[in-house]
Design brief:
By secondary structure, the protein is α/β, with parallel strands linked by helices. The chain has helices at 6-12, 28-37, 52-69, 79-84, 99-106, 119-125, 154-164, 180-185, 195-198, 203-214; strands at residues 15-19, 42-45, 72-76, 89-92, 111-116, 135-138, 169-172, 191-193. Helix 2 packs parallel to helix 3 and helix 2 runs parallel beside helix 10. It starts with 5 loop residues before the first helix and ends in a 9-residue tail after the last helix.
Length: 223
Amino acid sequence: MSSLHPVLRLAEARLYLVTDTAPGGRSLDVVLRAALRGGVDVVQLRDKTADDDALLAAAAVARAACDEHGALFIVNDRPDLALAARADGVHVGQDDVPVGAARETMGPDAIVGLSTHTPDQIDDAHDAHEEQPDYIGVGPVHATPTKPGRAAVGLDLVSYAARTAAHPWFAIGGLDPTNVAAVAEAGATRIVVVRAITEAEDPQAAAVALRTALGAPEGVPHG
């Protein structure tokens, strides 16, 4: 487990994985450890259908894997559950718990991430003063079944974030090794993926391919 402050580790992160409790119908532990070996820097647990007991059980698995590999562990939406799971932070959406309330629940050292989908939301994220998030997600770049009903924002918003974002930011939404180079050309240096790893036959190789397409340094084995 790294001794660096979570926010400092976040600044160095390039590849962020979002997963449910059974990625691709497989063992969470097996998939995560493979993905982490391939260079995943941040893992977020997101499962809208699991109950609290199942989420906490999965969180314990993810926490152990992230600790072993020196990666950050984030819980989606639920600051209370993130605190109980000893997560490094929580990720909230525009309609979820406000950033300030999430930080109050988790404490000043926790990471709080925020989804953004428009230029105004990117601007608002760094105009919020004491309620600023530690990072933002920008997207969805492409339409994705993990965010049904959310219109794709395309590369224009990625370019806008590259010019204006005051925080570490991650492009997200339908990204895979075939289209990551385009978001990198638009200015992204960090990405979030879901299916590109959770549905990959070889999650470790998928993570390596994503880092390569992003132009990121080869993932250093954590530990």
